[in-house]
Design goal:
This protein is α+β, with helices and mostly antiparallel strands and 177 residues long. Helices cover 42% and strands 17% of the residues. The chain has one domain.
Length: 177
């Protein structure tokens, strides 16, 4: 009979609901443990992610150096005016026909000198009597050393890419392996 009275008693039902609602949620300790586990996993994963990003940026920089040196050989043979005076001369000519000042050999992002976390410094050298450049140097340096890359790259007319881990690379550094 007492059980039947509690069923009709609104106060008895509210006590039952309060007891059930306390059992459904998470305690503060349980939430803190979950947050701690997430932070530990993030602390392990983030350095690996950063190393992977640096490796990808450096691989892209080597590829871009190869692309620029190949574009320079094409420029040299196509236009017969030596190597390109600037990176900008490799840009897309738009609707016009390719020319020595807009050869269309590189994408318009790379000709700005900054791409995939690296800065590309191109210098034409050795102008002959006609003003045609017979050599060039190309440096690819991390935009933010240690974050976008750790190695520096160098290439010139023989198209051998050289690497230095401490500072800008030059023709005296070892070739990329």
């Amino acid at each position: 009979m007492r059980a039947a009275q509690e069923d009709h008693n609104p106060e008895g039902r509210s006590r039952q609901r309060n007891a059930q609602s306390r059992q459904r949620g998470f305690s503060l300790i349980e939430l803190l443990i979950v947050v701690a586990i997430i932070l530990i996993v993030a602390a392990i994963a983030i350095p690996d992610l950063l190393r992977s990003r640096i490796a990808a940026n450096e691989a892209a920089a080597v590829s871009n150096c190869r692309t620029i040196t190949s574009a320079n050989v094409i420029y040299y043979t196509t236009y017969g005016v030596g190597f390109s005076p600037t990176l900008a001369d490799f840009q897309d000519p738009g609707v016009a026909s390719p020319s020595p000042t807009a050869a269309g050999l590189l994408d318009n992002i790379l000709v700005t000198g900054t791409k995939t976390g690296f800065v590309y410094t191109y210098v034409a050298l050795g102008a002959d009597g006609s003003g045609h450049f017979q050599n060039y140097t190309l440096n690819a340096d991390p935009l933010t050393p240690g974050i976008t890359g750790t190695r520096h790259f160098f290439a010139d007319e023989p198209a051998i890419i050289r690497v230095n881990t401490t500072g800008p690379a030059s023709d005296s550094d070892p070739p990329l392996q």
